[in-house]
Structures are given as structure tokens and as C-alpha cells.
Amino acid sequence: MKGVIIEVDIYSAIRLRYTGGESIRSISQSLGVSRQTVKKYCEGNTHPDVRKTYERSSVVITSDVESFILSCFIEDETENLKKQKHTAKRIFDRLVCELNFTGSYSSVRDAVRRLRAEHAVPPQSDIPLAYDPGEAVQIDWGEATAYLDSQKTKVNLFCARLCNSCDIIVQAYRTQNQETFLEAQQRAFDFFGGVPRRAIFDNAKVAVKEGFRLYAKPQDKYLSFSAHYAFTLDFCNPAKGNEKGLVENLVGYARRNFFVPIPHVADMKSLNEQLWQSCLNYRANHKVAGRSQSVSELYAIEKEYLNVIPRFRFDTSKTAYAKVDDFSTVRYEKNNYSVPTRYLRKEVTVKGYADDVCILYEGSLIATYQRSYGSGKTQYRLEHYIDLLERKSRAVFNAKPVRDNITKELFDWGKILPGGNKEMVKLLRLCLDYGEDKILSIKRSIPSHIIPTVDMIRSYLNEPLETSVIYLNQDIEVLETDLTKYDRKFGVVK
Questions:
Q1: Predicted pLDDT of residue 112
Q2: Based on C-alpha coordinates, what's the Rg of the chain?
């Protein structure tokens, strides 16, 4: 048991027996403890609780190793990627691979911990900021979750806050592209009723081409947008959330207050209408801590200092030119949209907005869609193909524009119509003219043992017009007419 650290009760027995005159040999034999251990504790020169300080030699952590570790820190700072920074384990692996390091991982881990502490920037106080009315708006993005048409969906939150009054606007979008970014600011100006003189934003790619802070070069379209609305651009330093702390707090506020409980809405438009109303309620009822006036009172003052919104509405869309393919569809951003078949192989203009896609031919709008994101999706409109189907009715039951746009009930009904494919096309035409719901409601009103035909449905649609009845007064006065001049004219002699 050489070198064993004994328990206190054994130590007590050793001390009591030794001071009582018992020999070291006897104590060792009776307690089962080595004579060296008994000798160590019998005279009371040490205690079992006393631990010898152990220090591993740091020779393996040379100046070269420390320099390598510091270079890893500098690399992390340069790249500024929060989720892609060197860990102690990654530094150890690189040391082994690149410098043939032979020391232990624990020695590297301790060195990393020590060097981080030595080179850490001490915490600094934020400077309280004040803004004049109409001076600036802070802008930021965040994320939240909502149910759109019963589908759990992650949405991107555009958040903007006037720096003087703290009035807010929050809107949701599918993604953070440039057209969304510009459209969101347009909505913000509409909500605020004017344009602040400066926009404070971070270095997102939708806004900045390259550089940061004073050296940031805005994207060409964002520069054009800011020129039209007459505001200057103020980009924050990377990872400096305190430079736009008002809106950073707004992102969290919106998630906690506007998305708890999780909204269940039909679509993005409905969600944004709900958010718009929530922001109006915030303006009417909220009071910022530390301020004597409410948001409503401060906003009423600040609104008078905002620049007037220009009459011309800036086109925020991303515009492309495309040729209509043989299936009468147009490709835009990896997705397809149908147009009427008469535009086959013609060149059209496609404008992509945050939520919509508009297709134009020679300046005239020919189709509008809810924008698809992702890739490989095609949206068909039945009305774009009905003329073609009337000429090629054999394809009606296999045509994707049909299958994608009608209910199973209508599809199954069409299959049992006496006239076959041609009758089905006629039925589709009625649905386009009167609405599928109306056609199906007429079908359901007919006795179940009768198969409703298209002519039968049409007879229900051709209801007689209601005519107004004019009732004449029975006491109408009829004036006597002198007919002698007509008798003379035609030679009638009495």
C-alpha cells in the first residue's frame, strides 16, 4: 500500500496507537497498512487531506505552439462565422497534422483556455444613443414559425423601428432575397406614412455588394431605391448588434408577442395582415420603458418630420425575359408558370416580387401567380388550356392543367358523362364561366339516380330573367285629335 492516501479513521487510529506507545511495526500489522505509510503519519508531520501539488511540465507548449493557437484565433475573427470557429480539439488535431505535435490533448486544451483569457477583449459599456424625429430607422431580419394552410412553416421576419418614436413594423416573407428586402421597406414607409432620412442596417448581401461600415458598397438596385426615396445608407460593423439595438430587441419582441401562440392562417397575405394590425395596436397602446410619452404620442410628432413618399412607386421586382415553351409555360427562378396557349413561343417579360410573379407580353399583363420558391414546381391555369382542349379533347383526362385544377368529384363525374371527352371539355368550360362550386351544387341538387348531363346543367344556369311589371293608371286622359287635315291630304270626302 505504498503511496496510498488513507482515510481519516485510519489516520486517527495510527495517531492514537503511536502516541500510546505502540510500535510502527505493530500498528502496520494490526491495521494492514504499510510501515512506510504508518511512519509517514505517526509523528503528525502531515495529514491525509494535504495533497501534493502536481504540475505537468509545459515544455510541450512551446512558443511555436502558442503562435499557432493564436493564429487560429485570428482566423476565426477574420472570418466572423459564429458556428465555424476553432475548438480546442480542432486546434489539437491541426497541431498534430501540421506541426507534428507530440503532446497531449489536455495540454493543448489548457493552453487554449489560458490564451483565450489573456487575449479576450474586456467587456465595454454601450453608449446611450438619441435620435431626432425623422432621423433614422433601424432594420433587421429574424425568424419565426407559423402555420400556413395547416403547414408548419418557417418564415423570415422583416423588422423596422423608427429610432425616435420607437414605432414598429413587422412583416413576414418566404425568403430574404433583394426583391423581398426592397418591397419590405416600401411597406414600412407606407406603414409609417413617410420616409426617414437614414436607414441603419447590417452588411447583408441583399444590401451590400462588398466591404463594410464606411467602406460598404451597396447593391446597385438598393442604391437606386435609396436615391428614389431620398434616404442615406448606414451599415453597421459586422457582429455589432448594439449598433442597432432597438431593432435587435424588436425581433425577440415580435417572436414572443406576435407568434405566441403560433399563428394559424390561410396564407402569407393573411399572416401579414395580422402582423400589420398587431403593429397598429403596438402604436396605439405601447409605452417604452424610461420614456415619459407613449409610442403613439411620439409617433404623432415624428410623422411630421418624415419625408414625403414619392408618387412613383419604385419597381422592386427582379425582371427577366423568357420564351414561352411548347407546353405554354414560362421558366422563372427554377420554376414554371403557364400562360394562354396563344403566346406559344413568344418572348415575355417576367417580374418576380416577394410574393407574386407577373408575366407580361408587350407591356400587357397576361398572368399573375403566387410565387413559387424552391425548384422544379409548375403552376398551371386551366383557363390557359381550355381553347386547346376544345380542339384536342382526347387528352382531357390526362392533361395536367385539368388534374391540377379540379376536384376529384368533378373529375369522376366527367368520366361517366354520356358524351365522353368532348362533354368533359364542355363541363370544364361551364366551370370556368360560372365557377366549379356552382356547377357542383347544381349536380348535387339533381336526384342521385339521374346522371346530370352538360345540357341539363346548362338548363339550370339559363334561368329566366326577372322582368319588372309596369302598372298603368286606369284614368289616363286621352285628348281628342283633329283628323280633318289628314282627310284633306289623302282626298277623303265626308
A1: 93
A2: 41
Same domain for 161 and 220: yes
pLDDT value of position 330 = 97
Predicted confidence at residue 381, as pLDDT, reads 97
For residue 82, the enclosing domain spans 63-119
Q: In what order do the strands lie in the sheet with 356-361?
A: 318-323, 347-352, 356-361, 364-370
Instruction: Report phi then psi at 433, rounded to 5.
Output: -80, -40
Closest CA to 381 of 393, 370, 391, 390: 370
For 104-116, write each residue's pLDDT tens digit: 999 999 999 999 8
Q: Cell numbers of 392, please?
A: 384536342
Domain boundary among 119, 144, 167: 119
Q: Which of 379, 400, 417 is the last residue of a domain?
A: 379
Strand bridging mode 329-332 / 232-235? unpaired
Summarised one tens digit per residue, pLDDT across range 235-250 is 875 544 444 455 558 8
- The pLDDT, as a whole number, for residue 1 is 42
Number of domains comprising the chain: 3
CATH (domain of 370):
2.40.50
Q: Compute how many other C-beta atoms are within 10 angstroms of the C-beta atom of residue 241.
A: 14
Q: In this structure, are 142 and 207 located in the same domain?
A: yes
Query: Does residue 51 sit within a domain?
Result: no
Low-confidence spans in the chain with pLDDT less than 50: 1-2, 54-57, 239-244, 465
Which residues fall within 8 angstroms of residue 244, CB to CB, at 6 or more apart?
138, 139, 140, 200, 201, 202, 236
d(Cα 233, Cα 224) in Å, to the nearest integer? 11
CA–CA dist 90, 86 (Å, integer): 6
CA angle 51, 55, 60 (to 5 degrees): 165
Relative to beta strand 136-148, strand 264-265 is parallel
